[in-house]
Amino acid sequence: MPGGETLAPTRLQREGLFIDTGAPVTAAVSRGDGVFCAHGDGRVQRFSDRQPAPRVFQPHDGVVLAMAAAGEQAVVTGGDDGRFVRLAAGGDPEVLAVFDGQWVDCVAAHVSTGRLACSAGKTVYLWSPGAAQPRTLEHPSTVGGIAFDPKGRRLAVAHYGGATIWERNQRRWAPTRLAWAGSHVGITWSPGGRFVVSVMQENALHGWRLRDRMDMRMSGYPGKPKSLDWAGEQPWLVTSGAEGAVCWPFGAEDGPMGQVPLCIAQGGAQMASVVLGLPGQEAVMAGYPDGAVLMSKLREDADDRVVRGTTGAEVTALAATSSLSHLLIGDADGGVLWAPLLKSSKSEE
To answer: How far apart are CA 190 and CA 300, in angstroms?
Structure first.
């Protein structure tokens, strides 16, 4: 907030359902008309705009470390109990694998192909529809992040020294190494599949243009850009790690190279902790350590709008339904706000 002032509660807060769960929110993923919300005590809740109260699952015995979309109404989760689990809106948790004594802290899924993946230590386990057992993909160090490309034919894996792209050919998954010194702790694909971007252990991102393996270094962050999302038609890679949502343009042939990123939804002296690209919109939200959430259009001259005022609990998760009917805000104290988004946004214009 400019000047560090306290922001008053908004209409969205007043109209929403607030639940104090007592367990930190670790992730939130939008699926269909609802949002899955993961917690530090192994719980996952599914909020829906068609139900007055969330459905509660207990897929893990410890912290839910990772969650990814796995179907129109389903997600996969990984936990520090070594479990890899699939959750569907209308069913019970399905334990896909258990890795005793290891954490499952990276998960990925591709909705169209049905492929699923998780990591434990240096190994990625890859499930394909109809296969009795997963394939094992080995890496030189502990896996820092995994992600399928938009078509589900390639899997990007972040690790120390760069990333590995696994691609399915006629008989097997073949690796291609993308080298860059340092520790890579997260990874994402551009919506068109032309670029891969990793999160560095240092305060930077590193990207590759895949057709020629051109390196793209995105640095200058005052903090670590832990939260990533894609927004807008260009598209823009939106990140945390600065005093606002940092938005890198990826519409040009060279991606963001030679271009200056936008910094919008400004939080004043504090750095954004979570970012969200609004589905189908040229707009971004950013959550902050003081609990506030701001929204801004993807323009240099855009004004910031207060979505949620100051609460004192750090925002750790943001997700909106695909129709933008509802928004979920989760925080480090275990608070979850489930609120009607379109109604509140229109009323405050």
So the answer is: 22
Looking at the DSSP assignment, which residues form a beta bridge with residue 246? 239, 263
Q: Across-strand partners of 244?
A: 242
The CA-CA-CA angle for residues 126, 129, 130, to 5°, reads 115
Write the pLDDT tens digit of every residue in 141-171.
999 999 999 999 999 999 999 999 999 887 7
For 1-22+223-349, CATH gives 2.130.10.10
The helix (run of H) or strand (run of E) holding residue 238 is: strand 236-242
Residues linked to residue 269 through DSSP beta bridges, in sequence order: none
- Going by pLDDT thresholds of 50, 70 and 90, the confidence category of residue 349 is very low
Q: Fill in the amino acid letter for 343.
A: K
**108-132 pLDDT tens trace:** 999 999 999 999 999 999 999 988 8
The CB-side HSE value for 157 (13 A sphere, CA atoms) comes to: 31
Residue type, 288: Y
Q: What are the φ and ψ backbone dihedral angles of 48, each rounded to 5 degrees? A: -135, 145
| Backbone φ, ψ for residue 341 (5° rounding) | -90, -50
Query: Radius of gyration (Cα) for the chain, nearest Å?
Result: 19
DSSP helix/strand/coil, 172: coil
Torsion sign over Cα 16, 22, 24, 27: negative
Spatial CB neighbours of 91, under 8 Å, sequence gap ≥ 6: none
Cα dihedral sign, 42-273-46-54: positive
